[in-house]
Structure formats: C-alpha cells, structure tokens
Design a protein that fits this description.
Elements: E1 5-11, E2 14-19, H1 27-34, H2 48-54, H3 59-69, H4 81-104, H5 109-120, H6 129-140, H7 146-158, E3 162-169, E4 174-184, H8 187-193, H9 201-215
Antiparallel strand pairs: 1-2, 3-4
C-alpha cells in the first residue's frame, strides 16, 4: 500500500497536503492534474522494527504477529485476533478491492477477486499473465485471456495492493520481460485475501525483506541461479 500525498503549498511552519481515495486519485493522476507541481511520497505500512518499537511483547511473538496481521498502524490498537482479522477483511474488501472495481469500471469482479487470491497464494513465485490464465482454467474452470489478466495486474499495481518485480538474467546481464514476481505492500492485507490460510513463513519473509529493501531506497530485481546436483 502507498498513501498518495499531494504537497500543494508551503508557508513558514505550515505544510498543506491533500489526500484522496485510490478510486479517485492515483499517482498517475498527479502528472495530469498538477503538471509538475505535485510530489508523490511513497509511504509503506510499518516495518518490523517500527512495529516492534510499539509492540508490547518479545521479538518472537512480535514476528508472528507481524507476519500474520501486517503493518497497518490501527491493527496494533486492537486487542483480539478476531477484531484484527475482521478489520483487515473489511479494508481489503470495502476499500482496496472496491476502489479498483469502481475506478476501472470492472464488470466481472469475480475474475479480479479470483486473480488476487491466486497471487496471494503464490507470493514469491515466478509468474506471468499466461501462467495465471492457465491457473484460472485448471483451478476455477474460468477462461480468461492473458491480456485481461495483464490489465487486472496493472490495476492492482496502480492501487498499491501489489508490486511487480522484474527478473534479471544474471548470466546474460539483462532484464527479462517474463516471468516476474509479485509482492504485497502489506502482509496483513495479503493474508486477509486468503482468509488467513497458508501462513508460509519463508515466502512471507521474502515479501517482508522486499518491503524492507524498498523502504531503504533500494531498487529490487529477482533472479534465478541454476544449480547442478552432483550426487
């Protein structure tokens, strides 16, 4: 998730900002509406260290909490797991998903929801629109064109739900157009999309590390290194 903040005026000791819903105002709109007079500030949910700075417990319990419910600040103020799950489900359904549907006038919202559930179940896996289209056919018996899948992925990226990471060919020293990986801007939102199933710690940790690198200002690519079994 990113929060779009538009810096519109500076007076001594005063900063004025305008924020907007994802369904009405995305980073791509800044160029059109403000023509260079706006600044896009990327704000991620709490990092693990930020989370632990206010978490009342030890590091191990905090880590389990963090990879389950993510880094949205309001989650920390909620006492029960049931309330946290309910809040995250409400956010992803009534804010995130609905914003994408409303903004892009999507008629078949079932396809979009199914797609994001598939991505949620396979974070850290190399993929592409063709592969995702094939998954639709085998798991949901739905025929959806790869071009439509690609368009939906673009919508989800624009709404800051997922981020695409390009694959870099280490041997050829060049970028490859496909396959690539998708990571979620918040783990709690990811988990809510699949009803808090599949708590694979290694895949979630990969997502957390990706977000930490982005927070620190790094550009992140993914690569594949082939190994030979010598046994």
């Amino acid at each position: 998730m990113k929060l779009l903040i538009i810096f519109i005026l500076r007076i001594k000791n005063i900063d004025i900002y305008v924020t907007g819903s994802n369904s009405k105002f995305l980073s791509t709109d800044i160029i059109t509406e403000f023509r260079g007079r706006g600044e896009d500030i990327k704000i991620y949910p709490l990092s693990y260290s930020e989370f632990m700075s206010v978490y009342d417990g030890d590091k191990l319990d905090g880590w389990v909490e963090y990879i389950t419910f993510g880094g949205l600040p309001l989650v920390l103020s909620m006492k029960s797991d049931e309330r946290k799950m309910s809040y995250l489900k409400e956010q992803q359904k009534n804010v995130y998903i609905n914003d994408v549907i409303e903004r892009n006038k999507i008629k078949n919202d079932l396809e979009l929801v199914s797609l994001i559930e598939i991505i949620s179940s396979s974070i850290g896996s190399l993929s592409n629109p063709k592969k995702l289209s094939d998954t639709f056919k085998t798991t949901a018996s739905i025929n959806i064109d790869p071009k439509t899948v690609s368009l939906y992925l673009k919508y989800l990226e624009e709404a800051f739900i997922i981020e695409k990471v390009e694959r870099y060919d280490v041997k050829g020293k060049k970028y490859m157009s496909t396959p690539y990986k998708f990571y979620f801007s918040d783990i709690g939102i990811r988990n809510s999309l699949i009803n808090f199933r599949q708590p694979e710690e290694t895949h979630i940790m990969e997502n957390v590390i990706y977000l930490e690198l982005k927070r620190r200002g790094y550009n992140v690519d993914v690569g594949v290194i082939e190994t030979v079994d010598r046994q």
